[in-house]
Amino acid sequence: MRRICTALLAAFILGSGALRAQDSNTAPELETVAGDIFDYESFAKKAHPRLFIDADGLKTLKKKVTGSGRKKNPVLAQLHDEVMKTADRLLEKPENISYTFDASNRRILPISKRAFRSVFHLAYAWKMTGDERYLEAARVAIQKFCDFPDWNAKHFLDAAEMCMAAAVAYDWLYDVLNPVELDRLRECMVNNAMTQTKYHGFAKPGTMSSLTNWNQVCVCGLVCASIAIWNEEPELCHDLVQKLLPTNKRAQTFIYAPEGVYPEGYMYWDFGTQYETMLLQALKAAFGSTWGLDETPGFMNTGRYILYMTGVNRQSYSYCDCVRGWWGKPGAWYFAAKSGDLSLLCNEAYLLRQGKYPDGGDCGRFLPVSLCMAKDLNINSLDIPMPEKEVFWGNGLTPVVLVHTGWKYDADDKYLGFKGGQSNVSHSQMDEGSFVYDAYGVRWSDDLGREAYTHIETPVKKAGGNFWTYEPTSMRWEIFRYSNWGHSTLTVNRSNFDPAGRSEILEVYESDPNNLGGKVDLTGPLHEELLSATRSIRLVNREDLVVTDELEALPDKPAEVIWRMITPTKVEPSEDFEILSKNGVSMKLEAQCSDGSLPIEYKAWPATRPDWWTPRTWDTPNKGYSVAGYVITVPAGRKVTLTTTLSRAL
Known about the structure:
By secondary structure, the chain is an alpha+beta fold.
C-alpha cells in the first residue's frame, strides 16, 4: 500500500491553478526567451520535406516498408499497409471537403479533419509509390479547402487542423506542385490562420493561451505551417515559433505533471497528445531539437497512462467528455521510440494483429506520422513484452487509479479504473469516485461518456443555459450523463456534487497482487451533505470487487445515501442482494453496513433522469443500460462503513 501525501498534492494543485483549467492567470509562469530558440539560419537552408522526416529519412523508410528480405521491417510494413488502404479508399471515394458548419452552426472541424486525413495519406502514398493518381487526388483536395472563404478561425481548432493539411501539402509536395498552387497554399495559411492569431489567438482564453488540448492542437498547426513556409515568410514564422513554443511548454507542465495523467480523458488524449507528439516530431526533424518539450514533468509517462486506460472487449475508460471505444494511438510510437520501451506498444500490437488498428475514433488521420516516429525503432515483431506492473496511478488535475491484471484481452483479464478530481475543469463531469470494471469478458460498471456537442449545445442554449459553464447552477449538470446521477458513485440527499469540491487519491494498493486498487477522498464533492466521505475500490483475491465507503453524516442533518452503479447488464434486486447478468455470466452485488440496525433497500433504476428533475428532452436514451444499487439513510452525526462486494454468482 502506498499512502499519498495530500498536503503536497494540495500544494501542487493550488500552485498549478487547477481549479479552473482554462484560466491562464493561474497557470505556471510563461517562460521568457531572450534569444532564438533554434538555429534558424541553418534550418532555412534545409530542403523540403522538413516536416516529420527529411528526404534521406523517407528513402530509409521506403526501403523498410516496401523492400524485401532484411531490408523490410514487418511491423513498419504493416503500418504502411494500413496507410495505403486509406489512401486507396480515398481514390475510390474522396472525402467530402465542403465548407459546412456542424449542427450547432459553430464548427467546421470535421471538415478540417477530413482535409488533413486526405492530404496526409495521399501525400504519403505519392512519396512511397510515385503513383500519379495519389498526387492528383491530393491536388483536388487542396483545391477544395483553398477555395474556402476562410478556415473559421473564430473556432481556432478548425483553422489549426486546416493549417496542418496545408502545411503537409506545401512541404511534402513542394517539388511537384506548381508555383500557383504553392502560393495559394501559403496565402491561405497566412491569411486564414497564421495572422489570425492576433484576433483569435494569444489574446483569447481557450486558444494558444489555453492549458488544454486547444494549445497543443493550435500550436502544432501553426508551428508546422511556419516550418513549411519559413523561407517565404521568415519574419512571421520566426515570430510565431518564438511566441508559441513557450506557451506550449507552459501548457505541457500544467497538463501532464506530475505522473502523466491526461486531465480531459481518453479521447482528448488522442486530440491533444497526438498533436503534441506530432509537434515534437516536426521540431526534431526540422531543427534537430524539441527544446525540451518532451522532458516536461510527467510527459514521457503519459504513454503508459493511455496504455492502462484500455480495458477488455475494445472498451476504454471514458471519463470526462469522451466516447467509449478503443482504437490505435499513433502517438504511442513516439513514446516507444524515445524511451525504447516496447511494452508501451502493447495495445498497438494487439490491434495490428487483429487488423483493426485505424478503426474507431478519428486517430487514423495521424497514422502516416507514426511511420516517421517509428522509422528507427528497434522492433521487428508484434510479439512484444507485456507491461510489468498491474497498477498505474497518477495525480494532477484528474487523479486516477487503473488496474490491469493481464494483457491477453480475454475473459481472464480483469480491469478496474476509477478517478478523483473535480467537476469545474475543462470537459469534466460529476464523476468523482466513479469506476469502471471488466471481469469474465463483461463490463459490469461503465461510464456513459458524453453527449454529442452538436446534439446538446443548441437545446441547452434555447433553455437559457450554457453547456460550457461549470458553476453549480450550470445547465450542464441537468444533463443525466454529466451529473453524479449518471455515474457509478454516491448521491446523497438527492443532490448534485459541488463542482468545485476536489477529490484526491489518499492511498494506492499495488504491492499485494491480491489487493489492488486505491482510496479517494469524496468529502469535497459531498461536503454540503456529509461531514466526511472516503471510498476505496479494490480487486480482492483477483476475484471480487470490493467498494468500501466510510461516511459521516453532518451533526444536524441525516444523509440519504444512494449507492449507484451504471451497468449494461440485467439487474434483479431482492431483499438481501442483487443479481447482475449478461452473456451467460452472473454477478452478485451485496452490501453490508457497520451499523446493522440501518436497513438497506436494494433497487434497480432506469438509466434516465430522476422524476423530480425539471423535465427536459435533450438526454440521449441510454439503451441497454440500467442502474444497480441500494438506498440507506445514515442518521445525523452517525459514522458508518458501507462494504459493497461484486462477486461471481454461483
